[in-house]
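Quick one: cellulose synthase A catalytic subunit 7 [udp-forming]-like from Salix koriyanagi, C-alpha cells please.
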Amino acid sequence: MKSLPLHACTPSISSAIINRSYSLLHFTALVALFYYRLSSILLSKPKPSLPYLLVFASEMLLSIIWLFDQAFTWRPVSRTTFPERLPEDEELPGIDVFICTADHKKEPPLEVMNTVLSAMALDYPSDKLSVYLSDDGGSSVTLLGMREAWLFARSWLPFCRRFGLKTRCPGVYFSSLEDNSDGPLHSLEYEEEKEKIKGKYELFKERVNKAGENIGSEEATSSKDHSPVIEVMDDEPKDDAGIKQAKMPLLVYVSREKRPSHSHHFKAGALNVLLRVSGIMTNSPYILVLDCDMYCNDPTSARQAMCFHLDPKISPSLAFIQFPQKFRNINKNDIYDGQLRKVFVIRWQGMDGIQGPMLSGTGFYMKREALYGNLSQKDVLHLKQSFGHSNEFIMSVHKIYQYGAIKNTESSGKLQQEAQFLASCTYEKNTLWGEQMGFLYHSVVEDYFTGFILHCKGKTSVFCNPSKPAFLGSSTTNLNDLLVQGTRWNFGLFEVTLSKFCPFIYGLSRMPLLQTMCYGYLALQPLYFLPLWCLATLPQLCLLNGIPIYPQVSSSWFMVFSFIFLASLLKHLEEVLSTGASIQTLLNEQRIWMMKSVTAYTYGSLDAILKCFGMREASFLPTNKVADDEQVALYQMGKLNFQSSTMILTPIITLIILNMVSFIGGVARMFIARSWDDTFGQVFLSLYILMVNYPVIEGMLLRKDKGRVPTPVTLLSLIITIFLLSLGHMTLNW
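--- reply ---
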C-alpha cells in the first residue's frame, strides 16, 4: 500500500505570472533607457559631462542588480507539512540542538536560558533530543544559568507535556502580555499546577539574574583566553520521586578553548566544536541551530522538519530545512525593517522553487552528513587527515554512514577528556575543518557561505514557513545596531564576492542559472552604495549649476524614465500589500535601504576591499540584545533613534542637507529661469529622497528628545555639504 505524502509543494502560479510580466516590461524599458543614454553619449555635441556618464554607470549597475533580483521571483512555491503522518516516536531519528551565545553582557543569560528551555520542551521524544549550548564567552554566569535551567526543566517539561502547552518558552508563557489559554479549559488542577510552576520560575529567574549582578570584571579578559569547559547536566533531585522519573533531553554546556594567539573563527568555529562534541555524545543525524535569543515558539517544528528529511524522494539530496526568522519585539510600523519581509516572504520562497533557500544563521534543521561531505569510501587514515586525531569522533563519523545515531551519555572521565580535546583551540590544525568540513570559515557570514558551498555540491534545501512562527527572536530596535550589524553582513558578503568563491565564477557551473543569479544578487548587494551615492549627489549638484541630467518633460524619452520609476514603485507596493503590510511599510523599507546603502553597504564593501589587500582583519561583535527603557519607548512610538556614532550618522545627514538645498535651489530655478522642462526630473529626485526620509529631517530640525540627531553631527554634515557644493560649483563650471 502506498503511504501518504509527508508534505505538499504548491507553485504560486498567479504570483509567477505577475512577476514574469513585470520583469519583461521593466527589462524592455531598461533597454530603451540604455539606447537613449548611449545615443546621447555617442551622437550629441558637445559630449556629455563626467557627471552624466557617472549617472549612466549608476543606472547600469542598478539595472544589473535588479536583473539578478528577478531570479527570486521566477518560481515561488509554498509548502504544507503533515506531521501526523510521521512514523511512531520510536522510529524518529535523533536531533541535536545547537545554541550559540558569546557575551553575557550583550546577551542576557535569562533570555538565553529561556531559549534553552524552549528547545528542551520541543514536542519530540526526549530520548531522541539533546541540547548543546556553546558559550564563547566562557562565562560562569552562563554555566550557573545552565545548571539552574536544568533543575527548573525537571518541573517545566512535565508541566508542558501534561497539559499540552503550545507556548513552551517559560519567559513568554508567564508574561502578562501572553494569552495563557493553553491549559484544558482552565481546570482547577491546571491553574494550581501553573501557580506552582510560576513560583519555581520566579525563583529560577531570581537566581540567574543575581548571578549576573555578582559577576566580576575579570571575565572581560577571560572571555578571550580560557581553557575548554564541558559539563553534562545530570544532577537529579532526591526528594521528589515524581520529578526524578521525568524523561529529560540531554543538556550539555560547552565552552571551547580560546587563546589570543589562535584564530577562533567566530560563530562557525563554535558550531564546529559543537559538531565534534555532540558527535561523541549523541551523534544525532539531524541538527537544529538557534541563536541564543531565538526561542522555539512552535514545539512542533522538529516534526515539521522531519516531514522533509524523512521523505525518501527528496531526502538523499536534502541538506537543510530553513524556517524564516521572525521577531517578537517588532512594533506596528517596523520602522527599521527588522522583520526582513523582503527576504523571508519574497526571496526565500522564490528560491524554494529552484534549488532551495540560502542558509540563514538560525532556525534551520541541518543533516549532519551534509556537513561531513561524501566520506563513505575513505579509510580511517583519510578520515583522521580530514577530521583530526580523535578516535572517538572518527568512530562517530563511521556510525553516521553505517549504523545511524548512537547515544553515549556517560559522564565518565574519559568522555570528558575526549570532549575537551575536541574543544581545544589546536584540534583543527592540519585538518579540513572550516575548509571542506563543517561550517566554513572563509567569511564572517558563515551561514551564507556554507549554504552556498552545499548548493554548489548539488545539495538542496527547503523553505518551511508555517502559519505559526516556528521560532521568535529579538530584532534590533535602534539605528546604530541595525547599521553596525548590516556592515558586518555586507562585509562578509563582499568578502566572498572578492574571493575565488565568487558566485559568478565558482557557482555558475555548479548550480542552476537562476540559483546562481540569486546568490549573485547578494554578492552584488553591497555595491548598491555606488549608485546610491552618485544619484544622491551628482544630479543635485548638476541641478544647482544648471546642467540637465534627465530628458525634458516634453520629450517622449521622459516617459521611459517615468515608467521605470513608477513600475518599480508599484511592484514594491504590490509585494507589500500581498504580504499583509501597509503603505507605511513601503516607505520604511525604502528609507532603510537608502540608509544602509550610504552607510552599511559602503563601510562593509570598503572593509572587504581592505581585507583583500591584507589591511584589515575580520571581526565579529554580537548584536546587543539589552535595550534600555528610553530606547524601547522611542521604538514603540515609531520614532527613529539617532543616538549613534558620528561615522554612521554623518553620511545620512549630509545627503539629506544636500538634497534640501538642491530642492530649494531647483524650485527657485524653475520659477526664476522658467526651466522646469529641463530640471523637473532632478527636482523630483530630490523631493522623493526628502519625502521618504522625512523622519530624518524631523530628527534633525523638529525633535527635542534624546533620540534626535545630535547638533554636532548636523553642524559637521552642514560643513561637508558646503564643501561638496563648492567643489561641485568649481568642477562643473571649470
